[in-house]
Structure formats: C-alpha cells, structure tokens
Amino acid sequence: MKTLLVLCVSLVSAMAVANDEQYEVSEETYTTEQAPADVVSDLVDICKDWAQGDNIAEGEQYSYVLECVNQELKLQGFDSVGQVSL
Predict the structure, then answer these.
(1) What is the pLDDT of residues 44-72, one digit of tens each?
(2) Residue 84 CB contacts under 8 Å (≥ 6 apart), including other chains
(3) Is the four-CA dihedral 68, 73, 79, 81 of positive or negative sign?
(4) What is the domain range of residue 41?
(5) Is residue 13, in this structure, part of any structural domain at all?
(6) Nearest CA among 27, 43, 47, 49 for reference residue 76
(7) Spatial CB neighbours of 33, under 8 Å, sequence gap ≥ 6
(8) Are residues 46 and 21 part of one domain?
(9) What is the crossing angle of helices 37-53 and 61-75, to 10°?
(10) Is 23 domain-assigned?
C-alpha cells in the first residue's frame, strides 16, 4: 500500500514539474511586436469615443485613452505604447 502511495505521489510530482517546465519554455518564446501606426490611430479614435460615452472628464481623457489603447493592443498581441496623440 505504501508503495502505491509513493508511486502516486511521485507521478503527481513529475507531472507538476513537467507542467512548470512547459510553461517556462512557452513564456520565454512569447514575443510581441510594435503595432502599425494605423492600428494605434484607429484604437485612439475608438477609445476617445468610449471616453466620451463614459463621460470621462476632459482632464482625465488622455490617461483613459492611453490605458484603453494599451489594453486593446495587448489583446491583439502588440507591445504597449508610451504615449498617444489625441
């Protein structure tokens, strides 16, 4: 019975280590790229519309749009940007 228990624990441990190694490899090979300017421009326009729809104060619109654009870029697999032009 102890042998069976030790075997099961060893198997679970080996699976956990294999899973961690697989994650590390895929994380290392994951890369993003800079978005084309037209994609960023389109996202700025969309996010500006959303800011107006959400009644974001004029003084807070830049931060809102920048965060919005970066979230959308991330969803599309692109690098984030440091600034946008409103």
Answers:
(1) 999 999 999 999 999 999 999 999 999 99
(2) 40, 44, 62, 65, 66, 69
(3) negative
(4) 37-75
(5) yes
(6) 43
(7) 77, 78, 79
(8) no
(9) 130
(10) yes
Cα-based angle 49, 50, 53 (whole degrees, multiple of 5): 90
Asked if residue 21 and residue 41 are part of one domain, the reply reads: no
Q: Specify the pTM.
A: 0.64
The token duo for 16 is 């956990």
Whether 81 maps to a domain, the answer reads: no
Taking the alpha carbons of 69, 65, 53, 71 in that order, is the dihedral positive or negative? positive
Same structural domain for residues 41 and 25?
A: no
- Asked, for residue 41, whether it belongs to a domain, the answer is yes
Task: Say if CB 80 and CB 50 are below 8 A apart.
Answer: no
How many separate domains does the chain show? 2
